Amino acid sequence: MLGASSKKPSLAEIAAAYDLLGLPQSATEDDLTRAFRRLAPKVHPDYQGDALQDQYFRLTRARDLIRAEIKEGVPTSLARVLARLAYRRGFLRAAANYFAEAHALLEEDKS
Predict the structure, then answer these.
(1) What is the radius of gyration, based on Cα positions, of the chain?
(2) Is the pLDDT of residue 51 over 90?
(3) Which terminal Cβ of the chain has fewer Cβ within 10 Å, N or C?
(4) What contacts 24+ positions apart, CB below 8 Å, involve 20-24?
């Protein structure tokens, strides 16, 4: 599910990444860093041997997916799903732009 690939990750892969790290989809980069630093020593090959190496790679892949999601500034969860549905149902760019603008405004309010 969280295998390495060059294509854009699906919503299910991103949701699984948040679950693996125990983060809500509204997590910030600081939350991501704290969660990774809390979990990584439990599965890191230098501390636990090679038996848990696959789990460590899954954890780092999850961190990388979430970090890319945060840095892209892509609307997450419900906004992404609604934008995709609106696009498929014929509202096309208007609805997708609406959700992107709404997300941008929410991000401006946060800072």
Answers:
(1) 16
(2) no
(3) C
(4) 20/58, 20/59, 20/62, 21/59, 21/62, 21/63, 21/66, 23/66
Amino acid, single-letter form, for residue 84: R
List all residues 6 or more positions away from 40 whose beta carbon is below 8 Å from its beta carbon: 56, 59, 60
Cα 31 to chain centroid, rounded = 12
Q: Cite the residue boundaries of each domain of the chain with CATH code 1.10.287.110.
A: 10-72
**Mean pLDDT of all residues in 12-26:** 87
Question: Would you call 24 helix, strand, or coil by DSSP?
Answer: coil
Residues 6+ apart with CB under 8 A from 34: none
Which pLDDT belongs to residue 8? 77
Four-residue CA torsion sign, 94, 98, 100, 105 = positive
Q: What's the CATH architecture for 10-72?
A: Orthogonal Bundle (1.10)
Closest CA to 25 of 80, 77, 60: 77
